[in-house]
TrEMBL record:
Residues 105-213 form the Methyltransferase domain. Residues 14-29 have a biased composition (Polar residues). This is Methyltransferase domain-containing protein. SUPFAM superfamilies: S-adenosyl-L-methionine-dependent methyltransferases. Residues 14-49 are annotated as: Disordered. It comes from the Eukaryota. It comes from Extremus antarcticus. InterPro entries: Methyltransf_25, SAM-dependent_MTases_sf. It holds the Pfam family Methyltransf_25. GO terms for molecular function: polyprenyldihydroxybenzoate methyltransferase activity.
Amino acid sequence: MTFDTSVVDVQVQRSFSSTETNTSASTGKENMLPSEDSNEGLARHGSPYKEVSTDELYDQWASTYDTDGNILQFVDDLQMRNLMEQFVRLCSSRTLANDTGRLDILDLGCGTGRNTLKLLQSPWPSSVETFIYGWDGSQAMLDIGRSKCADVHHSTPDRQFGALFEVVDISDPANVPEQCDSFFSGLISTLVLEHIKIETYFAITARVLKPGGYALITNMHSDMGRLSRAGYKTASGERIKGTSYIYTPAETVEAAAAAGLELVGEAGEAAVDEWMFGEEDVGHGERGKVAERARKWVGTKVWYGMVLRKRGFW
Ligand SMILES: C[S@@+](CC[C@H](N)C(=O)[O-])C[C@H]1O[C@@H](n2cnc3c(N)ncnc32)[C@H](O)[C@@H]1O
């Protein structure tokens, strides 16, 4: 998620798991490093960023967000296949075991509904009423998500649900409605943490989940965050950015644990997934082709993701 991390026509996989415990000194520090992306190199040319609110950044980005070939979205799409499957299975089995008959699932910072749509299309148990919610601070991103997911509602008559989208600014826990406390059985939040103070983010996550509820979280990796950040080049050529923070996977696990959320894994092994492109993945390769513009990220971890569980039971 940077000015120029786009990948097109790509089909590669390069991921591994990590239980990294070392933490760097970056927690909570706003990312003030210039982007080194071409487009053409802010650092080299000294072009200034205009600081805008994160909502404004995404309001402006919304119309091209799904189509500008961003490599983080690409990696996230690939990695979410397994993570989402695991998340749906965990939430479903707990609900079936407890016979609550109802699942409420939140996409926190849902944006244009890229992953809300996947939630809607997931194989939730047919005996359970499932409700999907999307919260985001950007009205323009939400509008796209709403229209994208409206089609799913109509195309699956056997599944009488759609997604409920609302503007909620999660930079302040006071904005989160009290009736949502301990309400959601599961929550996904993809590529959002970068924009929020980590203590606030996990305070909200822990607050809205039921005890025993699951959270699937992905984020820009700190190794990439030290070099780049979420930003957008407007039609007039102006470069804008919102608020960004750099968090390592280990810092994320620690902050989650402090809020009462523990890392879960399958086959008894709890781990954070991380992603790094290899040289052999760029431009050619048996597994497909990554666009040349991803080459500068070879050898840099760009993404991490994890599934967490709030302590307790519902
Ligand atoms: C990179 S996008 C990710 C969107 C979506 N989750 C995805 O994976 O495509 C980050 C999203 O976080 C939202 N966001 C950032 N700060 C926020 C805040 N304080 N409150 C609510 N949403 C916020 C933005 O509006 C944007 O839609």
